[in-house]
Amino acid sequence: MSVPLLEVRGLCAGYGELGVLHGVDLRVGAGEMVAVLGANGAGKTTLLRAISKVEAAPRAGSVVFDGVDLASLAPQRIVRLGLSQIPEGRQLFGELSVDDNLRLGAYRRGRTERDESLRRAYALFPSLATRRANPAASLSGGEQQMLAIGRALMARPTLLMLDEPSTGLAPRVVEQIFAILARLRSEGTGILLVEQNAFLALRYADRAYVMAEGGVALEGSARDLAADESVRRIYLGAALDEER
Amino acid sequence: MIVFVLQLVVAGLTVGSAYALVALGYHVILRATRAINFSQGEFVVLGGLVAYTIVHVLHASPWIGLIGATAAGFALGWVYERIVLRPAARNGDIAVIIATIGCVYILLYGHALIWGSLPQPLAPFTGAQGQAIHPGGVAIQEQSLWVFALLALAFAALWLLFDRTTFGKAIRAAAVNPVGAQLVGIDVNAARAASVGIAIALAAFGGTLIGPITLVGGTAGIAIAIKGFVGAVAGGLDSPMGCAVGGLAVGVIEKLLAGWLPYQAVDPVVYALLLLVLIVRPQGLFGRKDAVRD
Ligand SMILES: Nc1ncnc2c1ncn2[C@@H]1O[C@H](COP(=O)(O)OP(=O)(O)O)[C@@H](O)[C@H]1O
Ligand SMILES: [Mg+2]
Description:
The complex is a heterodimer. By secondary structure, chain A is of the alpha/beta class.
């Protein structure tokens, strides 16, 4: 891999007294989809938070995005560089309309760019277009996840980070969302995907990391990891049984 | 009799306008920071005093006084958020309450040090002091007409800001979901500081409007802060319309009661009415039910 889009080295982060990440190394190339797997509490969410610097700040290590060291940058500057996160729980603006949620995704972008991105978002998610005046809180779970993705895309990110986008959604909606992620990747957007559903993630991703206790336990191509005995036993057992 | 009552209503709407602007300030700050800013009334007084200095010391027009006091209010509010509310919030809700009450006294005595403790007259925006029109025998000061018009203007401006502009919606977004706001690139700290700036600008604006009728300076701030709070709670702290109507209603009720009751009885009856509203409608007259638990 040439110069990666995102390079995380020795990242440590936590909450108050609690240390959660103990030196995470991870890379995502341009137009690459990378999955992060791992048990509950392994630190996957904290990893995304520490990269975005929202809710958790890095204590040690470095995060370089698109050649820029993020150490001295505020969260809003990081978004403007082209790194967007779709967080756990989606974090929509419930009382504001679908349209306003999307427009705020392009906050501080020019009006023409915003209108253009808005057209693209509605083209990508036609079901949102019919509900554009409704408050975000009134949408179904699947629509809310689409709105969260649409809102993040409004900033025209070159790297999209998603925290368990499939959680709580019907299989049909999950397939829809992953098809959109695959399409974004093919258009050149890098994707860092945290996912509980390891089977699904390894089916779509190029490479994957398995996290355990705040560090990286395993890494490799999605194909190798899907074939790996320990991964199959620990993370894929249930999913594979379901598939059969 | 009817003229007497209408006269009291006009007087009530005039002071009520200041309560309404204070109440709107509570609403804006509460939404942005989840705090009640008890020093809101002192900023009403400060706005009047800044206008007094601009008009009577620097000899500028009352309109420059109004704009200057409002702008100073915004700047002071911004600083107030940075050096009082934000640091206090790191130490919990009680610290915020104590800090804002402490600021009541700092501002109260600070004003007295700079401007003296005696209230000063402020020139009306147009005409001579006390100049009035008399429709149907009811005297309405010209300044009262300015108060009503400019309250309506401030309310419309707030609505435009929060419902029609991207900046205003970003402020709301930062208030309803700070995490989501940061993730779309909104500077949440700046949004909070701007909200407090807007609230204090409203207070200073209100102080300048009613200054020519009530005098400026002195110890009026605490009563204005409390009456504005009563108006906000009765109307609904989460509703701008509720805050405006509530503030006006408190002014009118206060003046009507004063028309018949001895002055010592007025405030107790005002608070008894507030309790009644809260028993019947805890969310306030215009509030949403789900806002009560906040
Ligand atoms: N906001 C928080 N405050 C304190 N501890 C937290 C917070 N969020 C997560 N943790 C703790 O950090 C650890 C890692 O959590 P998390 O990053 O959410 O893991 P994962 O996403 O892999 O399930 C857990 O022990 C969790 O309890
Ligand atoms: Mg998680």
